[in-house]
Amino acid sequence: MSRFLLSILLGFIAAYLWDFFCSQVIKQTSFIILGYRLHHSIYGLVSILFGAVNRNQFLKQDELSLILNQIVTECIELKNKYVTGGEKMSVDYICVFSQSSQEYQRFLAAAEQIGKRVKETKTGPVFRFNAAHRTPAGDAKILKIREPDITRFQKGDVDFSTNYSGFKNEYGSLNGFSLIVRDNFEMLELKDNHFNVLVYFSSIPPSKLIEVEG
Q1: Are 66 and 10 in contact (CB under 8 A)?
Q2: Which of 70, 32, 38 is nearest to 155 (CA)?
Q3: pLDDT number for residue 105
Q4: Contact 157, 75 (CB under 8 A)
Q5: CATH: 3.10.180.10, 3.10.105.10, 3.40.50.300, 3.40.50.10610. Which one for 61-213?
Q6: How deeply is 169 buried, as exposed, middle or buried, from its count of CB atoms within 10 A (0-12, 13-18, 19+)?
Q7: pLDDT tens digits, residue range 98-157?
């Protein structure tokens, strides 16, 4: 193996190990913001150093689908840890959190191939899948690609459809759940530092909300 290829390999290994360290340790401390600023800086530096090698490596549709289903699978595990009822919940919305500008562009390019832009937000565009995207929790309807944000160091989030009023009464006051109120809807956020995802339960499913706003 040439010295050049070895340096590339070592660079990616270092970036991966740092990412793992941040997700498992730093996010559980009071230095979360500083830690993830360092994380994004190192990730970006590696991307710049090895950009010449990676600039043609576009994210394929099946690769994005795999990432989405990994997010959904972990969200199911988080949900099942706290939600003990027998209600079957299907995924309505998936959001992918980009960790660098390069990753954001790769996610966007892949999302354009499997969905149609239906909304622009301050934190990234929202897509409606061209065809039903099958996940371990049913067919997802909406996809969002979120811009890099030091407050969103997780992989992503999922919004599950549920009987919101009854669900809120049963779980809204329990540890791990937080109520978030918007202008025309509200939702419960489920968060656990042992998981690298977030879960939401909205009073109006995001797919329906987009139809109303549209």
Answers
A1: no
A2: 70
A3: 96
A4: yes
A5: 3.10.180.10
A6: exposed
A7: 999 999 999 999 999 999 999 999 999 999 999 989 999 999 999 999 999 999 999 999
